[in-house]
Amino acid sequence: MTSTALTVQQTGRPTGFPTPDHFRFAESPVPEPAPGTALVENLYWSVDPYHREMMDGDFALNAPLEGRSLGRIIATRDPVALPEGEIVFHRQGWRTHAVVRPQEVRRLPRYDGVPLSAHLSLLGGTGLTAYVGLTRIARLREGEDLFVSAAAGGVGTATGRFARLLGAGRLIGSAGTAEKVRYLTGQVGYDAAFDYHEGPVADLLAKAAPTGIDVFVDNVGGAHLGAAIGALRERGRVVRVGTVGQYNTPDTPPAVFDHADLVEKSLRMEGFLVRDHQDVQEELYAFAVPHLLSGALALDETVVDGFERIVEAFLLMLRGGNTGKILVRRSPGL
Ligand SMILES: NC(=O)c1ccc[n+]([C@@H]2O[C@H](COP(=O)([O-])OP(=O)(O)OC[C@H]3O[C@@H](n4cnc5c(N)ncnc54)[C@H](OP(=O)(O)O)[C@@H]3O)[C@@H](O)[C@H]2O)c1
User: Fold this and answer.
1) Relative to the CA of 272, which ligand 1 atom is closest?
2) Cα(219) to centroid of ligand 1, in Å?
3) Could you say which of 29, 87, 161, 296 is the most buried, measured as most Cβ atoms within 10 Å of its Cβ?
């Protein structure tokens, strides 16, 4: 076992897009577990848009950061609750090693044929966000037409694949490159997609969904939100998942839309945080795992190898360099 642990720390507050200079890798000896704890060697890390929001204040400077991670227990002082060899989910990401207490980890169900990474993508918080958005917030009904922004990202690809299996009608997605647009229609099951750089979103959406939409799953905000409200049919729903279009450009003007539309079309707009819906996790497993095993569901992941590339992976994602959920893996072959 290596004797050195690495921990990423934030060193300054960014204005606009962060750069590698806002982070440093701190070296320390691998920690020893105290009684009642265990030492975890991390195997997979999630880097997420909300980390960019945390960089504005919630992440303390020059201190370990929080983030979702999967790791293996390699030494334990509580062999019953934290057995050696067990793979666990926890939130002490952005570091190679973590000392955890039983209440800080979730022991993961293992499904033969389902890769470990799925517990940070389709079966993890990303998939749960998509599933809750469709089933609890939109309350999607069979045959309803759906528009998804940031459709080629983690939540967006999961939303498209789940919506198809839940019986959605037409699926329309927007993304930032022509290659992603092709991926959405060629791989994920979207019926139509467009690159939002190619014109006003309202015009592109009108072309892709000429008869309107029933549900908008919004990962972006701004012009996407305004355009979608205009395109919604009566009793349409907006599921507000995130505002990634503004995290690095806080001066972006807020969405402009006709407020009367909300009344006249009896629309509903609702946001949510996935952390308030952990009770749906088992239902997600019951829904998604059989489809993963049958091949009806596939994982959309961009995997970056090497913990030393975690900052690079995070910055890549903020600029749209990922397709599907972006993950960092300790080494290939896990
Ligand atoms: N409510 C919750 O509990 C919850 C949970 C998880 C995630 N979220 C939110 O869900 C959204 C997606 O998260 P994710 O983890 O799946 O990330 P993701 O979509 O995999 O990655 C972020 C994507 O955002 C797109 N993007 C970046 N800047 C943009 C801009 N100015 N306009 C439009 N698109 C832009 C990029 O794709 P393009 O190439 O297409 O631009 C990038 O790939 C985020 O807003 C996140 O905060 C919310």
Assistant:
1) 1
2) 5
3) 161
State whether residue 103 is helix, strand or coil.
helix
Token pair belonging to 195? 């690159």
Output the CA 149–ligand 1 centroid distance in Å: 8
User: The domain spanning residue 232 has which CATH number?
Assistant: 3.40.50.720
Q: What are phi and psi of 19, to 5 degrees?
A: -130, 170
DSSP state of 17: S
In terms of domains, do 305 and 202 share one? no
Distances in Å between the alpha carbon of 79 and those of 75, 85, 304? 9, 10, 32
Strands 232-240 vs 213-218: parallel, antiparallel or unpaired: parallel
Number of domains in the chain: 2
Q: Is the pLDDT assigned to residue 253 strictly greater than 90? A: no
Q: What is the pLDDT of residues 79-92, one digit of tens each?
A: 999 999 999 999 99
Is residue 288 included in any domain, yes or no? no
What pLDDT does residue 1 have? 66
Per the CB < 8 A criterion, the answer to whether 303 and 329 are in contact is: yes
Average pLDDT over residues 120-148: 98
- Measured in angstroms, how far is the CA atom of residue 173 from the centroid of ligand 1? 13
Can you tell me the distance from the alpha carbon of 41 to that of 197, in angstroms, rounded to the nearest whole number? 41
Cα→Cα distances 273→67, 125, 276, Å: 16, 10, 6
Residue 323 lies in a domain: yes
- Cα torsion 219, 251, 181, 224 to 10°: value is 60
Asked if residue 183 and residue 94 are part of one domain, the reply reads no
- 313: Cα separation from own chain's centroid: 14
Q: Among the atoms of ligand 1, which is closest to the Cα of residue 252?
A: 31
At residue 3 the predicted structure's pLDDT band, cuts being 50, 70 and 90, is confident
Instruction: Give 96 Cα–ligand 1 centroid separation in angstroms.
Output: 25
Residues 191 and 176 in one domain: yes
Q: Which residues sit with their C-beta closer than 6 Å to ligand 1?
A: 48-50, 126, 129, 150, 152-156, 175-177, 180, 219-220, 241-245, 272-274, 317, 320, 322, 325-326
